Amino acid sequence: MSQNPSGQPLIALEGVYRTFRQGRERVPVLQDINLAVGENEIVCLVGESGCGKTTTGRIMVDLLEPSAGTVLYKGRPLAALRGKDKVEQRRALQIIHQDPFASLNPSHTVGQILSFPLKRHRMAQGRGGVRRRIWELLTLVDLTPPGDLVNKYPHQLSGGQRQRVSIARALTVEPKLIVADEAVSMVDVSIRVSLLKMLHGLRDQLGVAIVFITHDLALAKYFAWEGRIAVMYLGRIVEIGPTPDVIANPAHPYTRALISAIPEADPEVTRNKQRMILRSEDIPRLTDIPPGCAFHPRCPFFVPGLCDARVPPLERAGGFAQSVACLPLTEGLGLREHVSVEEPVVGP
Amino acid sequence: MSTSKQALFTPARVTAEGPPTSSPARVVLSVQDVSISYLAHRGRVRAVSQVSFDLRQGESLALIGESGCGKSTLNLGIIRLLPKTGRVDQGKILYTARDGSIVDVLALSDREMRAFRWGECAMIFQAALNSLNPVIRVRDMVYDTAEAHGRHDRARIRNRMLDLFRKVRLDAERVFNAYPHELSGGMRQRVLLALGVLLNPQVVILDEPTTAVDILTQRTILEVLKDLREAMGFSIIFISHDLSIAAEMADTVATMYAGEIVEIGPVNELFYRPRHAYTLGLLQAVPKLSAGAQDLSSIPGSPPDLIEPPSGCKFHPRCPFATERCRHEPPPLIEDAPGHRVACFESERVLAASGPARQSTHRLD
Lengths: 348, 365
Prior knowledge:
The complex is a heterodimer. Chain A is of the alpha/beta class. Chain A is built from 11 helices and 12 strands. Helix content of chain A is 30%, strand content 20%. In chain A, strands 6-7-8-3-9-10-12-11 form an 8-stranded mixed β-sheet, with helices on both faces. A 4-stranded antiparallel β-sheet of chain A has the order 2-1-4-5, with helices on one face. In chain A, a hairpin with a 2-residue loop joins strand 1 and strand 2. Chain B is of the alpha/beta class.
C-alpha cells in the first residue's frame, strides 16, 4: 500500500473500549486497550475467561467495532477505509477460530472451502490457477498429499486436519495478520506442537504477523518465545513485554499469581513451586469492576489508598523490561505483602 | 455413619479375608484383566483391553492419554455406568470393603450397586454445571443423596456437609442454600467434590476435574483436593489429558493408548524415566513454563481405529522406535524396574532417548 507511511505498525488499537449490552446493563468488556502489532511479529494475548482477549482479537480483524477508540491499519483508521483500501484491509486481517468443527461448512469439500475465497478475491487465475493454488496451500499447511484431501468433507478429517484447513483458508487471501483464537485448544496434546510449528513456519516463510490468543500460559511461552506476551485481566492489559521477561520475571501481581498457580509437567518442579496466596478467590463480575486497579481486592500486595483510588497506567517499571499496570511498581514503591491472608478485604 | 452404610452395602462376599496385615497399604480396588467394548455400526469396538491395576488405600492414580484412549470408559466400567451399547466383556473388579471383605463389583445386584456408588466409590464428572440439578437447591441435592443411601438424620447430614464445604473453602451456609446458577464454575466444582465425599467413600474417581476452569480456579480445586485427601484418606483415580496435573497430584501414573495400559509406575519414574515411546512422546509434546526455550515435538500420525487396530503393538505405526517385531507381536506389560511396568520391546532404547530429550533447551525448529 503506497499510502502507508513507513514505520507504522500493521495494526494498532488506540484507547479501545468495548461494551456489550446485557439486558438493561452495559458490560464493559474492554477498557482502554492500547496495543500495536508490527509486521511479522508474534504477540500472545493471555488471560482467564472473560478477560477480553477474544474481543480484542475480533476488534483487531474488524469483526467487531470498538465502542470508543480507534483501530489503525498501517496508520489509517479502519472506519475511514473505503473501496479498494477496505478490501485490502479485509484480506490482510484474518482470524482462525477455536472450534474447527464449527468453522468449516460441513457440506463443502476442502477444495470448495479453499476455492471460494480464491475466486472471490481473484487470488488465482482460471481453473488451473485455482487448483494449483489449492495444492500449494495444502502443502504449506502440511496436508499432504493434497490430492488425498481436496475432495474430502470436514467430517472425514481429524480435528488437527480440520484446523489445518482453517489455516489454509485464512491463507488464501494472503493476509498480513492472522489472529489465532485458541486455535489449538481443541486439538489433542500429541499433535498441538506440530500445528504450532506450522504456524511459526508460516510466519517465517510468508512474513505474516500472528496474534495468538490462549488461556494456556505455557503454550503462549512456547509459541511466542521470540515475541511478546500481553496479560489481560477484566478487560485491561495489565502487563506486556518480551515473552522471556514476562515469564521468568513477571511484574504484575496477577501475572505472578498465574505463573505460580500453573501446574507443570514435571513432578519435582510442580510440587516444590512457590504458590502465591490471593486475598480473595472470587473473580469480580464485569458489571461490578472494582475501582482503581481491578485486581486490588485479590492482590496480596494491595496498598490501601493507592491501588483502590487510581486506575494504574500501563508503563515501564524499574527493574523490568516489560510494561506493567501496577502503581506500587511504576511509582517505585515495590511490592510488599502489606495485608495478611486472613484479613478481610478493605472496601473502596 | 459407617454402621448405616454397612447395613445397606452388604453384598455377598467373594472371599472373606480378615483385614490384611499388609505393608505398605492394602489394596482397595483391584482391576484384573478388564476388557470393555461398545457396539457400533461397523462392529464391536474394543475400547478397553485387558487392563489390570491395583489401587491402594490413600493412593492417587492418574490415567493419562489422548481422547479416545479408553480412560473414561474404564472408569465408567468400574462404577458400571456404561451406556447401553457398552459392556464389560471380561475381567474382574475386586473391591475391598472397610471390614476387609472383598466383593466383585461386576457381580453386584442393582441395589447393591446403587449403594456402592457414592457410598463406597464416588465419581465426579467433568461438566460441573451439568452434574447439578438446576432447579433444586444444593441442600436438597445433599439430602436426596444422603437419603438414597439410608441416612435420614438431616441435622447430622447438614453439619457434615457444612463442614465439608468449609474444607473446600466455600462460604458454607450460603452455598448450602443456593441454587447451582448462583455459584461460579469453580464453586460448583468444589460443591461436587464435597458432595462426592459426603458419604465417606474409599475411592473417588475424578473425570477431568479441572478441564475448562481458569488457572486460579484450577489451583484452588487442586489445593482443596489435596486437603480433602489428607483429611479423609480416600484413594483417587483421576482421568486427565493434562500431564501437569498428573505430575502434581498422582502417586502412580498409568499411560493409556488405544484401550490398553502401556505403562504404569510411580510418578517420578514415568516423568523422569519413561520407558514407553508413547509416554515419552506425550512428555516431549508438552511445553513447560519453567524451562527456557524448548524443543518440543508432536507424535506423528493419529490414534488408531479401534475396530481394526494395528497388529502387534498398537502404537507401532506412530512409533519412532518400532522394529519388525513390534509390527507382529503385541508386547506384554512387564515389570522393567521396581513398580514400573511397561509394554514395549524397545523400552531400553526409549529410556536412553528420554534422558537428553527432557533437558533440551532449543527453540522452535
